Amino acid sequence: MTTATATRTAARVVDAVKVYGVGDTAVRALDGVSVAFPAGRFTAIMGPSGSGKSTLMHCAAGLDTLTSGTAHIGDTELGTLDDRRLTLLRRDRVGFVFQAFNLVPTLTVEENIRLPLDLAGERGERERIDALIDVVGLRDRLRHRPSELSGGQQQRVAVARAFAGRPDVVFADEPTGNLDSRSGGEVLGLLARTVRETGRTVVMVTHDPVAAAHADEVVFLADGRLVDRMESPTADRVLDRMKAFEVPS
Ligand SMILES: Nc1ncnc2c1ncn2[C@@H]1O[C@H](COP(=O)(O)OP(=O)(O)OP(=O)(O)O)[C@@H](O)[C@H]1O
Asked: Mind listing the UniProt keywords for this protein, alphabetically (predicted)?
C-alpha cells in the first residue's frame, strides 16, 4: 500500500512554520512544511545542518509548539491540547529515542523497558514485552544497569522502551550519533525490523546517508522547507541528493 489515500497517517504537520526569536535575530526554522508520516513505515528526515530537521521532529512530537500551522498525532491536533493532555499524549502515544540514550541509571534493563507501561499503570502484557526483549536481543542483560552495558546495548534498551507502550509513532533523533558504525548498524536494523514485524511507525532525524538508507522513505529539508522525498533509498542515492544541496547558488 503506497497510495496516500490507502495509507493511514501516524503523524503529520500542515503548513508548519516555526520562528525562533523576534525582530532582527528571528530565525525561520520551518517555513511552511506540510508532511505526513505514514503508519507502519520507517521515514528518515534528512537535510543540511540548520535545515530544520530537529525542529520539525520536536514540533511533530509535541515537544515544541509551532508558530503557525498544525501538528497531528493520528487524528489528534496537538495545538488543541492543554499541557496535561499533551503530557499524557507524549507518554501514551509517542515513543522517543535520543542520541544520548536517556535511560534511568538506577533501574535495570528490564525496569527501563517496562517504564512506559509502569507509568501508564498497565500491568500484564508479559508476552509482548518478552517478545520485544528477544527482538532487541537483551535477554541475558535484563538485570544489568545501563552503566554495565555498551553504548549499542544501551540504545537497544532505549529502542525497546520506545516501543513498549505501543505508541502510534516513535521519533528517533540521531539515534546512532554516539555509536560506532557496527553498533549503529545494529540499532538501525533493529528499528527497521521492529517496524516490519510489529507494524509500528518510526520517524528518524539523521544526517548520515547510511542511516537514512535503512528507512522506507527519506524526506529532505533545506532552509526550513520540504524539498524532496525518496522511496526505497540507498546510501549512494541519498548522498548524491545531499551533495546537490552543497552546490553554491
Ligand atoms: N532554540 C532555538 N533558538 C533559536 N534558534 C534556534 C533554536 N533551535 C534551532 N534554532 C535555529 O533554527 C534553525 C534550524 O535548527 P534545527 O536544529 O532544527 O536544524 P537541524 O537541521 O536539526 O540542524 P543539525 O543537523 O545541525 O542538528 C537553525 O538555524 C538553528 O540555529
From this structure: ATP-binding, Nucleotide-binding, Transport
How many separate domains does the chain show? 1
The reply to whether ligand 1 has any atom less than 6 angstroms from the CB of 52 is yes
Please give the distance, rounded to the nearest whole angstrom, from the Cα atom of residue 160 to the centre of ligand 1. 28
> Considering the domain boundaries, does residue 175 fall inside one?
yes
Closest atom of ligand 1 relative to the 207 alpha carbon: 25
The helix-helix angle for 126-135 and 181-198 (nearest 10°) equals: 140
Enclosing domain of residue 126: 39-63+77-246
Is there a domain that residue 10 lies in? no
Q: Which among 33, 51, 64 is the best mutation to test ligand 1's pocket, defined by most ligand atoms within 8 Å of the CB?
A: 51
Pairwise CA distance, residues 43 & 31, whole Å: 20
223 Cα–ligand 1 center, Å: 10
What's the whole-model pTM score?
A: 0.92
Residue 30 lies in a domain: no
C-alpha pair distances (Å), 60 with each of 37, 52, 95, 161: 10, 12, 12, 20
Kindly state whether residue 85 falls inside one of the protein's structural domains.
yes
**CATH label of the domain that carries residue 58:** 3.40.50.300
Say yes or no: ipTM exceeds 0.95: yes
Q: What is the pLDDT of residues 31-58, one digit of tens each?
A: 999 999 999 999 999 999 999 999 999 9
